[in-house]
């Protein structure tokens, strides 16, 4: 579903954020991405979202080589990628329902489908009863789950998360991880950038480790890395 072939990313002429990175993620895999601050984690996610382009090598998502993708096609690729942020980026001037509906509205989904899709997404994260509330009325863990509902509302085959549990205590973090695991079980490819070594070790999943832009490890407990 996601493949990096010898991917190098330079910013300007003298800064190399990723060096000859190779890996592949299968459909339905849940994989962590870790490494020190500045190791290149956000850069790797941005390449998948086509917010940046590689300086060398190939980034392939869903069989599409993204390197040469015309700019006008970028929004279509992004529809297939759900993104969850640490600070969830919810809008506090509208309801939970309207926050989750936003990606569908941007895509021009017919109104009759929006209600059904939004409620299906809220149901998956256990927040169906809170659709009319303002996100400000929710706890931090609930707000993060609204962010996840919004990321999956159009059923993307790929879900990326950048430090999704950064502001949460261990119990809530475990809940969020359980949700991600459920999505991977229905075939969604999930890639989670995280510093939370304790949580990562607990879950015993395959983990890609970046060190100064190089991938130094990718063998999780499952030993499923072939890169
Ligand atoms: P991480 O997410 O692991 O902290 P990043 O991918 O954000 O790492 O950054 C990797 C390296 O690339 C860092 O040294 C960072 O300073 C640099 N970098 C990231 N974005 C840019 C940019 N837009 N311009 C120049 N350098 C950047
Ligand atoms: P539909 O919109 O087809 O009526 P639902 O929204 O209820 O159906 O979802 C149908 C099934 O698809 C659910 O079991 C759901 O978990 C699963 N599914 C498949 N891909 C995804 C995805 N990317 N995100 C969330 N759920 C997904």
TrEMBL record:
Instruction: Give the SUPFAM superfamilies listed for this entry.
Output: P-loop containing nucleoside triphosphate hydrolases
- PROSITE patterns, per this entry? ABC_TRANSPORTER_1, ABC_TRANSPORTER_2
Q: What keywords sit in the KW lines?
A: ATP-binding, Cell cycle, Cell division, Cell membrane, Membrane, Nucleotide-binding
Q: Which organism is it from?
A: Marinobacter orientalis
Family the UniProt entry places it in: Belongs to the ABC transporter superfamily.
Q: Which InterPro entries match?
A: AAA+_ATPase (IPR003593), ABC_transporter-like_ATP-bd (IPR003439), ABC_transporter-like_CS (IPR017871), ABC_transpr_LolD-like (IPR015854), Cell_div_FtsE (IPR005286), P-loop_NTPase (IPR027417)
Say where the protein is mainly found.
membrane
Self-association state and partner proteins as the record states: Homodimer. Forms a membrane-associated complex with FtsX.
Q: Is Transmembrane helix one of the keywords UniProt gives this record?
A: no
Q: Name the SMART domains on file.
A: AAA
Phylogenetic lineage: Bacteria, Pseudomonadati, Pseudomonadota, Gammaproteobacteria, Pseudomonadales
Q: What is this protein called?
A: Cell division ATP-binding protein FtsE
Q: Which GO terms fall under molecular function for this chain's record?
A: ATP binding; ATP hydrolysis activity; transmembrane transporter activity
In this protein, which residues make up the domain named ABC transporter? 2-225
| Job description of the protein | Part of the ABC transporter FtsEX involved in cellular division. Important for assembly or stability of the septal ring.
Subcellular localization, as worded in the UniProt entry:
Cell inner membrane; Cell membrane
């Amino acid at each position: 579903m996601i493949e990096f072939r010898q991917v190098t990313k330079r910013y300007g002429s003298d800064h190399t954020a990723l060096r000859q990175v190779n890996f592949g993620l299968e459909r339905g895999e849940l994989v962590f991405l870790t490494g020190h601050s500045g190791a290149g984690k956000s850069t790797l996610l941005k390449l998948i979202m086509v917010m940046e382009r590689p300086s060398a090598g190939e980034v392939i998502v869903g069989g599409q080589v993204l390197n040469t993708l015309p700019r006008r096609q970028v929004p279509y690729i992004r529809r297939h990628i759900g993104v969850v942020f640490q600070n969830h980026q919810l809008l506090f001037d509208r309801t939970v329902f309207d926050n989750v509906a936003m990606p569908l509205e941007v895509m021009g989904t017919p109104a009759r489908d929006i209600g059904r899709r939004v409620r299906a997404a809220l149901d998956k994260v256990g927040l169906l009863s809170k659709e009319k509330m303002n996100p400000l009325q929710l706890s931090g863990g609930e707000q993060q789950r609204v962010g996840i509902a919004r990321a999956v509302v159009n059923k993307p085959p790929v879900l990326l998360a950048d430090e999704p549990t950064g502001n949460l205590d261990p119990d809530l973090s475990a809940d969020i991880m359980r949700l991600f695991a459920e999505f991977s079980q229905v075939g969604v490819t999930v890639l989670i950038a995280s510093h939370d070594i304790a949580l990562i070790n607990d879950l015993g999943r395959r983990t890609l480790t970046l060190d100064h832009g190089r991938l130094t490890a990718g063998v999780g407990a499952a030993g499923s890395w072939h890169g």
